[in-house]
Write a structure and sequence with these properties.
With 356 residues, this protein is of the alpha/beta class. The protein has helices at 8-23, 63-71, 101-115, 145-165, 184-195, 239-260, 292-306, 338-355; strands at 46-52, 76-85, 119-128, 170-175, 201-207, 222-226, 264-269, 314-317. The chain has a single domain, classed as Alpha-Beta Barrel (TIM Barrel). It has an eight-stranded parallel β-barrel, surrounded by five helices. Strand 7, helix 7 (292-306) and strand 8 (314-317) form a beta-alpha-beta unit. Helix 4 packs parallel to helix 5 and helix 7 (292-306) packs parallel to helix 8 (338-355). The termini are far apart. The relative contact order is 0.14.
Length: 356
Amino acid sequence: MHFDKKLILPLFLLLLFLGYYFIFPDIFKRRDIIEPIPERINPELMKGIVLGLHSKDYHFDYFNLLKEIKSTGAEWVGINVKFFQDCASSTHIQRPPLTDPFWQQINRTMKQAKVLDLKIMFLPIVLIEHPQKKEWRGLLAPYDKNEWYESYHELFEIIGHICENNQVDLLSVGSEFNSLQIDQKKWIEVIRNIKKIYSGKITYSCNWDVIDDIYFTDELDYLGITGYNSLTKKNNPSLGELQQAWDKIKKEILRVQKEKNIPVFFTEVGYTSQNGTNKDPWNYNISQQVDLEEQYDCYLTFINAWRNEPEFHGVFFYDWFGIGGKKDIGYTLRGKPALSLVKQWYSENKNQKNEN
């Protein structure tokens, strides 16, 4: 029998491939496949997407965006609203008159969310209107704290009534006030005053790097985290590097959850579709170069880190508002590959919940 020597190399390569396939099957898995979720999931898991009310037109109707959020399989919407104070040392938080279209838009959006059977987390944030250098809300330093907290009480008296009237499910009493979180007695007073008006669940949204520094968790139902942790220092990290980063973050969060004895969830997790977004996800101007793959990879590794964790309480992905599409460099998932991951995860959880 004649054997063609030209077949030796192809046969050798085929045998080598088959050997690697059966010895190291994980190498050949599709990078966009999510493993089946386990039988045990948290039935109270918050599957959410943030809708920032960013339009400067207070007559803008968010109903179509809410319907899009519902179509992803999300069961929660996080409604984010901005308030302002003049500078970091200001003692007064600006708020429009009660008859202003600003408040009407909030009421309308909440009612529309309920029509769609979406649960609501309401998260107001305070921004600095005229920041100096690197000032942001985590560095507020009012020259008279008593006056600032009085202004905050007045703001949340309005917010508490709106949330109660619209059956809001979860209210965040603050977000990323790093420099003010040490005021334990002040925050306990804020929370207890809100509870006189509002009967739903209460959370506070802390920055990812100060989760140990919240001293009023006994007053909360949940502790929220804005999860904009830096994952690597590279523009083009491997999936393994991203996964390693999220697995490390997960261990730290579960430690805090256990030590503080309070359910922890993410009030925000998001990535722009920009090259380098994994390095500083909070930086929405890290690059002008579109990188849909990096956004996809960051979402994939977040989901893979948390999806099999029975002690996971939920996440709100930031942010639905925006044009979207494959040329968009913002946070929104609209029309981007990463959206398929969220839809798959949320639908799987829903199917399993129905089976249970």
